[in-house]
Structures are given as structure tokens and as C-alpha cells.
Write a structure and sequence with these properties.
By secondary structure, the chain is an alpha/beta fold. It folds into two domains: 7-65 and 189-400, QueA-like, CATH 3.40.1780.10; 69-168, no CATH class. Helix content is 25%, strand content 25%. The chain has helices at 48-51, 93-98, 129-134, 160-167, 182-187, 210-218, 257-266, 275-294, 314-328, 363-371, 376-385; strands at 31-36, 39-44, 56-61, 63-65, 69-73, 79-89, 102-109, 120-122, 137-144, 147-153, 195-198, 222-228, 251-256, 269-273, 332-337, 352-356, 396-400. The strands form three sheets. A nine-stranded mixed beta sheet has the order 2-1-17-16-14-3-12-13-15. Strand 1 (31-36) and strand 2 form a beta hairpin. Helix 8 (275-294) packs across helix 9. The longest helix has 20 residues, at 275-294. The mean pLDDT is 94.
């Protein structure tokens, strides 16, 4: 049964000056709040390796943010901003990034009403020769309100990934209220980012340095990765009072079979770095259920965790995924998720969460509330009272899952 939750119950006062507009000079110098069963301690992020429980697996999202924001100009001089969301033709990220002449993407289009059929040239006020040589153009194929399908074409034979690197800008969150700057190209990206596809960073990972990663490894904690490409939906506010009316957008993810086997064999506790890693990990159970009941994996529906009672154990669900991958001769699960994690959710995979401080009245605020058994106000009140910095470039939390919100396997 879909829970009745009102988003205004997850509001808190966030003064503009508490939003971190820029990153700190050192990634691991941010403050770290640890929340354990109602108790709060304060550290610096570089202390994290000392706080992690032994015999655990820490899971990172190794997606890479692409410079997905492009600015074009009409012959009249009007500007059109195009924000690439996901590839349509070809629909696979890697294939789209490898195209050398043209490709189509689903995009958010600024000033959409001013753009009809005419092909647009990339805005190049500095007359950059490399950009001019590429000759990037955009043609509108279809439009639905502020989104639409755009065909990009260019001349010099470069891969589309390089076209974006040269012509695009990193799409920093709108709540920073500033333009993208040079520092964002490096700092709005995790050190371990590997697979291109996100239009927003998995920001909990922005705090990790080589030193912190090395100390985690030295402690004997297993380090694993998943890959969920973060969509623009992460920026969308919940516009309805009743959360049941808020649509979650599909985000593709990939998980290696070797990691699933490690979880099954070791029985270790799992630490998720970021809400994207958590959503990926918690989606796995429902993928496994689909394989058990339907013989194949399907995208995880938004309200799947709430619309029925599940009798399968987490182990049975993971074994089903591994068995299906073995049968298909695959080393990696690739599927999508629209899962929403709200109070009442039964956590089946994640025991600890590293995350930032999130926007009021957001789906990520709901996720944190679910994980701590509703006691999110204690965390956020402390952070507001003790000078913590908020949102993407802000400080972080290390949160223990509340007793009673996990499934009994």
C-alpha cells in the first residue's frame, strides 16, 4: 500500500548563507556528523576510515558527470540552452558518446518556445578555433513542453564525448545560484569517476581523497563500485503535497556479478556512499523478485516496495540475479530504477550511509528520514546549530540505519 506522506512535513529552515556555494580547498576537510541510534558526534571527513565498522563493504557510485549543458544561438541572436538528459539514438550511453557525426538526445530546452525548426549553431563568443572547427549544430526533432528530442551534428569526426568536453559545461545544481566556473570541472566530480552518463554528481563521494581511500583499504574494508547514472530528476522539487503524486524518473544502473557473489559469500555489512548507491543497492531485491516470478529482470517501479508483501529473503533475491546472469553468460546486471525510498521502507541491503545534507522537501530528505526511523530532525537541527554547510558542496553525515527499519530475513 502506497504510504500517505505529505512533503511539507519534511521542511526545515535553510538560510541562503548556509548553502555551500563553493567546495573547500581540501576535499576531506569538510565536517562530518556521525549519527548512531539517536546519538550525534562531530568529526572531520578525513576521520571517516577510523569510524567505519570492520568486516564491512563500502560501495561507491563510479558514474562520471558529463558537461551536459550547451548554449546555442538563433540567427536572431536569441539564446537557447540545451541540457542533455539521456541518449535516444543510439540509446546506449557508450554508443552515443562514441558517435562521430550525429546523435539524438532527450534534453531540457531553455527558451523552448522561441525555437522552431531552424538548426542552431553553438554559441561561440570567443571565436574559439577548435569549437568553430567542430561546427556543432542542434536540430529540434520533437518537443513536449520544456523537454524534447534534439539531434546534434558536427563536422570534424570527433567522438561525441569529446564534443561535449570541448563545447559543454558542467551542470552544477541550480540552487547554487551561480554560473559554472573552472573549479567545478575538477571538484564537481569524484576522484573515482569512471563511466560517463550523469548530469549531477553523486555528491557524497566528493569528500573522498586518495589518502582517505588508501586508509579505508589499509583497514581491510572491501571497496566495491556500482554505477547509477544520475538524471536531472534529482534536481526536481516535489511539487505536490501528497508524495504519492510525485513521479520518479528512470535512472539506469549496472552492478557486477562478482560484487553480488561477494555479498552473498561474505555476509558483511554494507556502507553506501551516497543516496545513488543506496537506491541502486536497495533496487536489487526487487530485480531479484522479478527474476524469480517472471524469469527476467525488469526496471524497478517507483512504488514496488510498498504495493505488496514480499516473502522472499534478500539472499534468495540476490541468488536469483546471480543465477540469471550465469544462465545468460553475463558478468554485469544492467537495468533501470524509479524506486522512491520514503518512511515505511524496509531496507534489505544497506546498513550505513555516507551522505550530504539535502534540500528541504526533497525525495532525498525522505530517504534519510526512512533510514533513521524518522529522526531526521535531530540530525538537521544539530547541523544548523553547529555551523555545518549544506547541499552539494557542503559537509557530510555518516549515518547508522535505525533499528526496526530493516527487513527480517
Amino acid at each position: 500500500m502506497i504510504p500517505e506522506i505529505h512533503i511539507e512535513d519534511y521542511a526545515y529552515p535553510l538560510p541562503e548563507e548556509r548553502i555551500a556555494k563553493y567546495p573547500l580547498p581540501q576535499r576531506d576537510a569538510s565536517k562530518l556528523l556521525r549519527y548512531r541510534y539517536g546519538q550525534i558526534d562531530e568529526f572531520v571527513f578525513r576521520d571517516l576510515p577510523d569510524l567505519l565498522p570492520e568486516k564491512s563493504i563500502i560501495v561507491f557510485n563510479d558514474t562520471k558527470v558529463v558537461p551536459a549543458r550547451l548554449h546555442f544561438v538563433k540567427p536572431t541572436g536569441a539564446h537557447i540552452e540545451i541540457f542533455c538528459l539521456q541518449p535516444e539514438s543510439p540509446s546506449e550511453y557508450n554508443l552515443s558518446f562514441a558517435q562521430t557525426a550525429s546523435c539524438r538526445w532527450k534534453c531540457v530546452i531553455g527558451n523552448a518556445k522561441k525555437w522552431k525548426e531552424d538548426a542552431l549553431d553553438l554559441y561561440n563568443p570567443e571565436k574559439d578555433e577548435l569549437i568553430a572547427k567542430m561546427g556543432l549544430q542542434a536540430s529540434l526533432i520533437s518537443r513536449d513542453g520544456e523537454t524534447g528530442t534534439v539531434e546534434f551534428s558536427w563536422k570534424d569526426g570527433s567522438a561525441f564525448s569529446r564534443v561535449l568536453e570541448i563545447c559543454g559545461t558542467i551542470p552544477i545544481p541550480p540552487y547554487l545560484n551561480r554560473d559554472t566556473e573552472a573549479i567545478d570541472k575538477e571538484r564537481y566530480q569524484t576522484l573515482y569517476a569512471k563511466f560517463r552518463g550523469s548530469v549531477a554528481a553523486p555528491t557524497a563521494g566528493l569528500h573522498f581523497t586518495e589518502n582517505v581511500l588508501e586508509r579505508i583499504k589499509d583497514k581491510g574494508i572491501d571497496m566495491e563500485t556500482v554505477c547509477l547514472h544520475v538524471g536531472a530528476g534529482t534536481f526536481l522539487p516535489v511539487k505536490t503535497s501528497n508524495v504519492a503524486e510525485h513521479p520518479m524518473h528512470r535512472e539506469p544502473f549496472a552492478v557486477r556479478k562478482a560484487f553480488l557473489k561477494d555479498v552473498l559469500d561474505s555476509g558483511k555489512k554494507i556502507i553506501a556512499v551516497g543516496t545513488t548507491s543506496m537506491r541502486t543497492l536497495e533496487s536489487l531485491y526487487y530485480v531479484g523478485v522479478d527474476i524469480i516470478e517472471k524469469g527476467k529482470p525488469e526496471d524497478v517501479r517507483q512504488w514496488a516496495p510498498y504495493d505488496r508483501t514480499y516473502s522472499y529473503t534478500t539472499r534468495e533475491a540476490l541468488q536469483a540475479i546471480v543465477g540469471w546472469l550465469d544462465k545468460e553468460g553475463l558478468d554485469e546486471l544492467k537495468v533501470g530504477t524509479r524506486i522512491i525510498i520514503v518512511p515505511g521502507f524496509k531496507f534489505r541491503m544497506v546498513d550505513y550511509l555516507v551522505t550530504n545534507f539535502h534540500q528541504p522537501e526533497s525525495t532525498l530528505m525522505l530517504l534519510v528520514a526512512a533510514f533513521v526511523g524518522g529522526d531526521w530532525k535531530t540530525i538537521y537541527r544539530y547541523a544548523l546549530d553547529h555551523g555545518f554547510r549544506f547541499l552539494s558542496y557542503g559537509d557530510s553525515n555518516f549515518i547508522y540505519r535505525a533499528e526496526g527499519v530493516g527487513a527480517e530475513d
